[in-house]
Amino acid sequence: MSITASDVAKLRAATGVSMLKCKKALEESNGDQEKALQILRKQGEESAGKLASRSAKEGAIVEAISSDKKKGALALLSSETDFVAGNEDFLKVAKQLAQITLDENKEAAEAKSKALIPTLIAKLGENISLNAIQVLENKDGFVASYIHSNNKIGVLIAINGEANEENIAAGRDAAMQVAAMNPDVANPEEVSNEAVEKEKEIWKDQLKKSGKPEAIFDKIMMGKEKKFREEQALTTQPFIKNNDITVGQYLTQKKLKVVKFLRLAV
After folding, report:
1. Domains of the chain, each with CATH number or no CATH
2. Mutual orientation of helices 19-28 and 5-15 as an angle, nearest 10°?
3. What φ, ψ does residue 128 adopt, rounded to 5°?
């Protein structure tokens, strides 16, 4: 069986052992990665297997947006350290995977990652993995995005309205709000009844201990539910750039409407 450079890089990525020793182990195992790993361990290669077991808790999020602004993709590539997460080669691979997701689909990006990541691991010496991929499409408007300066938070937001420069900037403001405040839903009515019921149990206990008359419990509960829904929803949160208005009011002024959003965080 012919042993390819990709095969060697994959074993090197999983073990941290030299390329030459990986190649010899693969030749001996007739290309079987698991058997090659065992061969290396029997040879006393203590590092074999250790790299792959290390936790990849850091990483970076990158975006790709279609030229017509109708579709966006986010890719989260994980690493062990911030140092590697900021590496140019690391970010280049992350961007490539996001673009493949945008141009083709998630499955194509995942397949490509199996070829790209082992080589990246071999070069950078850390456990690296494709942690998450997200896609958002909006045929009736546009998709705006926001990536925080440290690449640790990424947001895509679907906005209904004309995709001109001013409106895309407004969409980015809304996406920045999502990054900063992490709302659960776009609009208050989208907050799940399950989430509300859990809160109601807490409110009931609080009211019973407050000494207030039970006759007004329902009215108080209605007010609490309204406030809770507004706090969880993007459009009813105070706008971070102008606390005198909500995000919804800001967008309405520009004749824009939020459809949905996606948020990824390292």
Report:
1. 5-53 (1.10.8), 55-137 (3.30.479.20), 192-232 (no CATH)
2. 110
3. -130, 140
- Give 229-263 pLDDT, tens digit per residue: 999 999 999 999 999 999 999 999 999 999 999 99
Question: Dihedral, CA atoms, 122, 123, 124, 128, nearest 10 degrees?
Answer: -50
Nearest to 126 by CA among 224, 228, 53, 217: 53
Whether 122 contacts 15, CB under 8 Å: no
Which value, in Å, is the radius of gyration of the alpha carbons in the chain? Answer: 25
End-to-end CA distance of the chain: 40
Which of 5 and 188 is assigned the larger pLDDT? 188
Residue 126 or residue 169, greater confidence: 169
Burial class (CB in 10 A: 0-12, 13-18, 19+), 261: buried
pLDDT attached to residue 126 = 83
pLDDT one-digit tens code per residue, 103-135: 999 999 999 998 888 888 878 888 888 999 999
On the CB side of 36, how many CA atoms lie within 13 Å of its CA? 27
